[in-house]
Design brief:
- The protein is an all-beta fold and 221 residues long.
- The chain folds into 2 domains: 112 residues, Immunoglobulin-like, CATH 2.60.40.2950; 101 residues, Sandwich (Immunoglobulin-like), CATH 2.60.40.1930.
- It is 0% helix and 61% strand.
- Strands 12-18-17-14-15 form a 5-stranded mixed sheet, with no helix packed on it. Strands 1-2-4-7 form a 4-stranded mixed sheet, with no helix packed on it.
- The radius of gyration is 24 Å and the shape is elongated.
- The N terminus and C terminus are likely disordered.
Length: 221
């Protein structure tokens, strides 16, 4: 008996269901992020009984995370996969494997894209325009994709309108996702748009697995 799989990745849709055959639809994101929860939709058609569905993320033959769910015949359900906090690229290519057994037997594997942005950093200043001799007050707020605060360390640097490095702070410790700092301007600073950059890194065995630059602009008059 012909069994068909329809795998929907992001906006790509391909749907073909034979009226006389057992079928199913799997919907999953093409891109995943470290620490995020991935929802996979599974729908069964004309299954003879409950279908035991297992989803797993595999890299170099090693299962990095997995979950399973029993889906009723002619019904839809979700499987939630909790991604690891680190998905280093040295593990090789990541794949999503979805397999069913029981009332419907199938197996499908597709390649995943890993987006290493697992922290969003927001940089705030106390105002947008500064005059010579004033102090720039800054606050850094960092969140994970789950909206939980990121309590690691970030590196912050300030460059003037000519992209000259004016100040740099290493290993700024975030407490409950928040840290603050200040930078006094000289009496005769370069006029123009200044740039504040925040960098976060996550290390696995000494290797950087993720880095993100977040930029805010300050006008000095």
């Amino acid at each position: 008996m012909e069994r068909q799989l329809v795998l929907l990745l992001l906006a790509t849709v391909c749907l073909r269901i034979a009226s006389s055959s057992e079928s199913y639809i799997v919907v999953a994101p093409k891109t995943v992020r470290p620490g995020a929860t991935v929802k996979i939709s599974v729908t069964t058609f004309r299954a003879i009984s409950d279908v035991d569905v297992r989803a797993e993320v595999v890299a170099r033959g090693v299962v990095r995370t997995s979950a399973r769910k029993t889906v009723a015949p002619n019904a839809a359900d979700f499987i939630e996969l909790q991604m690891p906090e680190q998905l280093p690229t040295e593990n090789g290519e990541y794949s999503l494997v979805v397999a069913g057994s029981g009332g419907l037997t199938f197996r499908n594997e597709t390649t995943l894209t890993v987006d290493q942005k697992c922290v969003s950093v927001f940089i705030q200043t106390d105002k947008g325009i500064y005059k010579p001799g004033q102090t720039v007050m800054m606050r850094f707020v960092a969140y994970k994709p789950t909206l939980l605060p990121y309590s690691g360390k970030i590196e912050v640097s300030i460059s003037d309108s000519s992209k000259n490095l004016m100040a740099k702070w290493k290993d700024v410790q975030l407490v409950n996702g928040v840290a603050s700092s200040d930078f006094p301007l000289s009496i005769e600073p370069p006029v123009g748009v200044w740039t504040t950059v925040g960098v976060w890194t996550i290390s696995v065995s000494g290797d950087v697995s993720g880095k993100m630059l977040i930029v805010s602009y300050t006008v000095v008059l």
